[in-house]
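User: C-alpha cells for this one?
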Amino acid sequence: MGNLEEQLKVSKSRDYQVVKANELIQKTRYSLTVQEQKTLAYVISMIKPTDKVLQEYEFNIQHFCKVCEIDYKSGGNYAYVKKTLKSLRDKSFWIELEDGTETLCSWVNKVWCNKRSGKARIRLDDDLAKYLIGLSKQFTQYELINTLPMKSQYSFRIYELMKSYAFARQKIFDLEDLKKKLMAETYDRYFDFRRKVLDVAMEEINRYTDLEVSYEPLKHGRKVVEIMFFIKKRDSYEKWEANNRGIEDMTGMNRKERVTGQMNLYDFMDE
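Assistant:
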C-alpha cells in the first residue's frame, strides 16, 4: 500500500502537533518548497510544552522520510534529507514587528547529519523561540497529518493562514499583500494567481484538512483588489472523512464501517 497507509500509521503512532504563534504565520513573508515546510513543521512538532528554550531536536531519517512521504526505500534518502536541511539552513524570512519594522530572520541555526547512525539533528534559530516556546495565547495549533498529502507550497502556507484566522470564520486580504506574503508576485494576472495558487490550495485544503475554505474575489470596478476567504472548521466526522478519502477502495470498508469502527483500519493495515 502507498502513502495513505503510511500517513495513517503515523497518525496512530504519534500525535504530531504543530504549534506556532500567530505572528509567525500572519506577519511573515517567505518562500519554502512544500517539502521544506513539511520538514520545518515536523521539527516544530518535536518541541515539548515543557521546553523552556529551543533544543537540538534529533530524529531518525528513515522514520522522518516515512512521515513526510519521501521514498525511504530508494537509498537516496540520506542525501535528500541532508539537501533539504541545508536548504532550510540557507533560507531566511521577513517578519513584521509591532512597530511596523520588518526584520530578516533565519529558520535554522545548525544541522548535523550522521549517515552511520541514520540520524539527523537540527537546532532552530534562537530568534524563533518567542514564536514557538511557552505560548499561552494568540497561537495556532494543527496536526501535521493535515499537511502531509499536500503537493503545493501555497496550499501549505494558505492552510496555516486560514487556520490562524479560523476563529473569525472569514478574512479579507489585499490581493497584492497576499501575493507578497506568499512570495507569489510572479503571477501578475489574477487569472494565473487564481488558477495556480488559490484554486490548487482550495482543492488540497478542502480534500485533506480539518478546514473547509472558499473564497470570493472583491473588485474595484473590473479589477480584483481583494480576496475574501470563508473558513469553516470541520467536525470530527468530516475531518476523518477528508483525511481518509479513498480508503474504501483500498480496504473494502463502507462509510458506516469506517466511522463506527466495525472494522479497525489499523488492524487491517498491520496484517
